[in-house]
Amino acid sequence: MKKIPRGKVQKYAFDFRDKPCLRVKPGEAFQVETDDALSGLIADDSDKPKVHSMTGAHMAALTKAWPPLFNPVVGPIYVEGCKAGDVLAVHIDWIDPWRYGFSGIIPGMGPLSDQLHFPDCVEPYVHVIEHLPGPSGHTRDGTAKYSETLSWPLDPFIGTLATASEREVFTSVLGQGAFGGNIDCRDIRAGHTIYLNAYCDGGLLYIGDVHGGQGDTEFTGIADETRATVQLSCTVIKNKRLPCIRIDKPDSVVAVGINMPMEQAVLDATRNLMEWLRDDYGVPPKDLYVRMSCDPAFRIRTYQMVRAVTLRNVVGAEYPKDRLFNALAPAPAARRKSPAASKKSARKAGPVRARTTSARKKR
After folding, report:
1. 78 and 223 both lie in a single domain
2. Considering the domain boundaries, does residue 162 fall inside one?
């Protein structure tokens, strides 16, 4: 199996001019080893690892450039048969987080960075989270050990997944759009298929910024940041253009919206969902439009709401697959019964139940 080892390729932008680091065929599985969002803040995986501070030499080297050299990605990966104007469907097989992850506080970043009401939320801080293997022997189903008294199941996902645009070069830390980018969407995870527009031949896919887990919004800007090994494959949908990212889950679909303010991102996500269900499932827009307000199964997922430079809000409009049909259309003829037929059916059913009851009495 083709594999890109950690450190062999490390980019900080989605650049259509980059030479592909790997070529794969549609449906071919491959593996990528990624670095953490701060390019090795935890230096090794020993029992007592070296951990860089948020204000030391390591961070100073990353912040010399602008935008900072945060969010390293691996790529581009060239998918044979994919052309500009197609859609790249990325299926994620599994994600194994590294032994350690970290969260914490970067000075000057986050919603409380300029407040003194919570002074302990302003100072630089690194919190190491240990990732313990699960029943499979891998961390993909393991446990995140936050402290001696608190742990939770690991819930790994890819924070940055993107295709290169045809002209503009987007940084991997701030780039977001219909091509993907740093959107920290918890549904870009194992078992799901992610649909991204391809603007260049080959798709030119970039992968990075894996999280061991994340709360809704990633409020402080730092989730459970970690290195990881990811296995995935890609297929191609010819001659199609999407308004934004779409996600196919086992039991539901999610249409993503990326915008500012938050309410505009919600509007974008719902419009994306309406177009998807109209075009691929035959659901009339009016039908879904009404259902959005009255069906409790319709959900808005808040993925990213980070106060950091130009990052926009990321949300998803989600709806279950068992309701992806035209609910305003007449029921199929096989399901309809005339009043007379219903009465006849009831007369037939009555004696059967009576005989059953009588038989029980005799026994």
Report:
1. yes
2. yes
Q: How many structural domains comprise the chain?
A: 2
pTM of structure: 0.89
Domain of 163 in residue numbering reads as 2-242
Among all chains, which residue has been given the structure tokens 């194992």?
Answer: 190
* Residue 39, in any domain of the structure: yes
Helix (H, G, I), strand (E, B) or coil at 345: helix
More confident residue, 175 or 339: 175
For residues 148 and 288, state if they share a domain.
no
Cβ neighbours for 153, distance < 8 A, ≥ 6 positions apart: 141, 142, 143, 144
Instruction: Kindly state the DSSP code that residue 3 receives in the 8-state scheme.
Output: E
Residue matched to tokens 């052309």? 83
* CB-CB neighbours of 242 under 10 Å: 18
| Angle, in degrees to the nearest 10, between helices 285-294 and 262-281 | 130
Helical spans, DSSP H, in 221-338 = 262-281, 285-294
Question: Which segments of 133-251 are extended strands (E)?
Answer: 143-145, 151-153, 157-163, 170-171, 176-177, 180-182, 193-197, 205-211, 225-237, 246-248
Tens digits of per-residue pLDDT, 225-248? 999 999 999 999 999 999 999 999
Both tokens of 124, joined, read: 């630089």
Q: Distances in Å between the alpha carbon of 105 and those of 25, 125, 218, 233, 345?
A: 41, 5, 12, 35, 69
Three-state SS for 264?
Answer: helix
Phi, psi of 52 (to 5 degrees): -75, 155
- Alpha carbon of residue 283 to chain centroid: 25
Choosing from 210, 242, 274, the residue where a domain stops is 242
Per DSSP, which regions of 293-336 are E strands?
Answer: 299-304, 313-320
Tell me whether residue 351 is in a domain: no
Give the mean model confidence (pLDDT) for residues 175-198: 97
Q: Is the pLDDT of residue 85 over 60?
A: yes
- Rounded CA-CA distance 90/231 in Å is 11
What is the C-alpha separation between 343 and 339, in angstroms, rounded? 6
CATH code assigned at 295: 3.10.28.20
Q: Is residue 356 part of a domain?
A: no
